[in-house]
Amino acid sequence: MTHERLPGLLALLEAGGDPEPHLARLCEVAVDVPSVNGVGVMLMVDDVPQVSLYSTGDVSARIEDLQYTLGEGPCVDAFQGGRPVLEPDLAQPVTPRWAAFTPPAIEAGVAAVFGFPLQVGAVRLGALDLYRDRSGPLTEEQHADVLVMSKVCATTILAMQASAPLDGLAGELAAAGTSYQMVVHQASGMVAVQLGVGVGDALVSLRAHAFAHDRSLVEIAEAVVMRRLRFNDDGAGAPPP
Fold first, then answer.
1. 104-143 pLDDT, tens digit each
2. Same domain for 149 and 32?
3. Closest-CA residue to 173 (of 186, 190, 197, 156)
4. C-beta of residue 89 within 8 angstroms of C-beta of residue 138
5. 32 Cβ contact list (under 8 Å, min separation 6)
6. pLDDT tens readout for residues 59-103
7. Which pTM was predicted?
8. CA gyration radius for the chain?
9. DSSP 8-state symbol, 110
10. Alpha-carbon torsion 60, 58, 178, 192, what sign?
């Protein structure tokens, strides 16, 4: 099935005028082929969203930001499970999930959301997110097309990263991704020192504070880095004395 669909999808990619697939064109085709409203690409490491590489609009960007802030959602589950995660009716799911992610996603206009893992062999890279503003599942053909698209996207990202240093992103990926993640990493380190915990636990505290105060993770991280917010021994954030 994958091999049968690949030539047609590659032809659509090349129709954009660029002989080499790139993230923006990949996402444009990933919107058109399965007839969804938006697409986002998230890189992940150790089950943690790291970089939102591309999103096709404000709602897709909101979905990526929610998952980055809350640490839950379709891309997180797809990455962790190594399989597609399909929610055709976010407002009335058969099995309720994503207690923190779902309400703001619905408020943003999301009715259905689909996450597909990005992986090449045993190498897991992240996830491809798609959303619709109406409920309903992907058809079998649409599902098959997105599987192929996710493989092309994963291969493209891996090729971009091939020449990068071991401890960093390739220049093209770093440029495509939003730079604010670096602020979160820096803030996690500062909170880890303030609380005397590991960086992973510090990130959990940052996310909890962001969720409790209805703020984005980036806003809270910037407040920590700018020393407008300091975390005390019980894990709560407060203005520094």
1. 999 999 999 999 999 888 778 889 999 999 999 999 988 9
2. yes
3. 156
4. no
5. 12
6. 988 898 888 888 899 999 999 999 999 999 999 999 899 999 999
7. 0.76
8. 18
9. -
10. negative
Residue 150 and residue 225 in one domain: no
CATH of the domain at 125: 3.30.450.40
Q: Which amino acid is at 218?
A: V
DSSP state of 238: E
Q: Look-up: residue for tokens 């980055």? A: 68
Count Cβ atoms within 10 A of the Cβ of residue 51 and give its class: 0-12 exposed, 13-18 middle, 19 or more buried: buried
| Tokens matching residue 125 | 């890279």
Counting Cα atoms < 13 Å in the Cβ hemisphere of 59 gives: 18
Tokens of residue 31, six digits: 């919107």
Domain extent for 230: 181-234
CB-hemisphere CA count at 13 Å for 199?
A: 9
Return the residue matching tokens 């490491």. 45
**Residue closest to 92 by CA, chosen among 135, 38, 138:** 135
Sequence-separated (6 or more) residues with CB below 8 Å from residue 125: 43, 44, 118, 119, 154, 157, 158
